Amino acid sequence: MDARDRLIDEIDAEMQATARWTGRRHLAPRVRAALLAVRREAFVPAASRAEAYENHPLRIGHGQTISQPFIVALMTDLLDPDPDHIVLEVGTGSGYQAAVLAKLVRHVYSVECIPALSTQAATALADEGIDNVKLKVGDGAVGWPEHAPYDGIIVTAAGPRIPPALVAQLRPGGRMVIPVGYQHEPQTLMLVEKDSEGAVHTREVLSVSFVKLTGG
Fold first, then answer.
1. What domain count does the chain have?
2. Mean per-residue pLDDT pooled into runs of 10, the chain (216 residues)
3. Listing from the earlier edge strand, what are the strands of the sheet with 150-155?
């Protein structure tokens, strides 16, 4: 069994251990396949590549991290991605989450506030042959309205509230997965669903720890 398979086994165990809170005992088969298909070592600094398949966050510079693989897996699974979906990611970081999403949906639009990270992510995605992700440097809290509405929105940094601009850019029937809370204080992973009539419903999923969502 290689490192990637061992990591998936660890993620499976965490999915089962947290199922009473998340409502998800197992990863969807498509999400599992995407995690196995993406080389996480391509999205971490060279000095950390030996830890690429360890189930914990890794520093990527500029005060940012690449999320724990279990959290990437859970957030992706909660999004219920479909092959025809258009997804917005807020917080490109290393590009790993975008790469996983790219295996599952038609197109990913990803916003990063740190230009150097966006540039590094673009290089990593191109090197891995991923061509259905478009990147932009900007304030993720205001989203990317030019390409809205989105079938799914995934936010990889925490703010004190759910940004109204992101809710507005979510398509009826769509889902957003977002951590809410202050850095270094308790945070909660939230699932936001907009029903077919445009009403918004939220559910607390799990306690988490993310870096700060900057901007509005």
1. 1
2. 88 96 95 96 89 88 87 97 98 96 98 95 97 96 96 93 96 96 86 94 91 68
3. 133-137, 107-112, 86-90, 150-155, 170-180, 187-194, 200-208
Burial code (b: 16+ CB inside 10 Å, e: under 16) for 137-167 equals: ebebbbbbeeebbbbbbbbbbbbeebbebbb
Is 102 inside a domain boundary?
yes
Angle (deg, nearest 10), helices 3-17 and 29-37: 150
Is the distance from CB of 111 to CB of 184 less than 8 angstroms?
Answer: no
Q: Which domain holds residue 176?
A: 3-208
Residue 197 maps to which CATH number? 3.40.50.150
Whether the full predicted model's pTM is greater than 0.85, yes or no, is yes
> What residues contact residue 156 under an 8 Å CB cut-off, 6+ apart?
67, 75, 89, 90, 91, 93, 97, 210
What's the chain's length in residues? Answer: 216
213 falls within a domain: no
The answer to whether 67 is a known catalytic residue is: yes
Catalytic residue among 48, 67, 207, 209: 67
